[in-house]
Write a structure and sequence with these properties.
Blueprint (H helix, E strand, L loop, with lengths): L3 H7 L13 H11 L12 E6 H16 L17 H18 L6 H9 L9 E8 L4 H20 L3 E5 L6 H8 L5 E10 L17 H4 L5
Antiparallel strand pairs: 1-2, 2-4, 3-4
Helix pairs in contact: 1-6, 2-6, 3-7
The structure holds flavin mononucleotide (FMN).
Amino acid sequence: MLSVTDAISGRRSTRAYADTPVPLETIKEVLQIARLAPSNSNTQPWHIAVASGAARQKLQAAILAEIESGKAASPQWPAGGVGLVGAYKERQYECAFAYYDALGIRREDKMDRGLTVLKNYEFFGAPHVAFVSMPKTMNRANALDLGIFLQSIMLLFAERGIGCIPQGALAAFPDPVREICSIPDDNGIVVGMSFGYPDDTAAINRLQQSRRDLDDLAVFVD
Ligand SMILES: Cc1cc2nc3c(=O)[nH]c(=O)nc-3n(C[C@H](O)[C@H](O)[C@H](O)COP(=O)(O)O)c2cc1C
């Protein structure tokens, strides 16, 4: 069994998947454990909807139809890319270019870059996609709890050889998700996550994004 250290060190976002679905019992087992995650005042504000099979296919078609019709994105909360400045903005570019480079897409090729964004809404070929939501009355502070819940799921998946990718992009077109996935009426979608068994032959799954040095992000005082 993977140690927590190995799960954190070895995990990568998975952007290519095998067709084999993850058994429902395994998905439920992971969520049974992830629901033990801590939260502010033990409010447990998370809700997760998992779409597989026909529902997953229907979702993909419905979201892509919205995009093709020119409908504007309408996330409940501002996307994570909003408000990035300085080194944070640079890291966002660096991350995107590392991704395009791994796919062999030239930086100036806007068309191919646009098609790459659409892969988010094809769930990168994953057999499952999940949507994590919380009450619309809540804000970013409560979203911290959802982040802890999500990371718990990601590490439990890693332990079981399941790949996944959190996707802020999946919060952008909520209407078909609300309808097909029975999201509670009072909830807004914070993030989506595609998951399944990784396609180990795909080079994109070996993309290793850089990380900040400890000295750059931590200070120790005594
Ligand atoms: C909250 C969150 C939202 C993300 N949204 C997207 C997304 O919409 N599309 C995408 O391709 N990757 C998305 N990612 C994946 C990040 O780009 C990725 O985690 C980061 O580059 C580090 O790479 P790694 O996960 O392989 O370590 C998201 C990650 C997080 C944590």
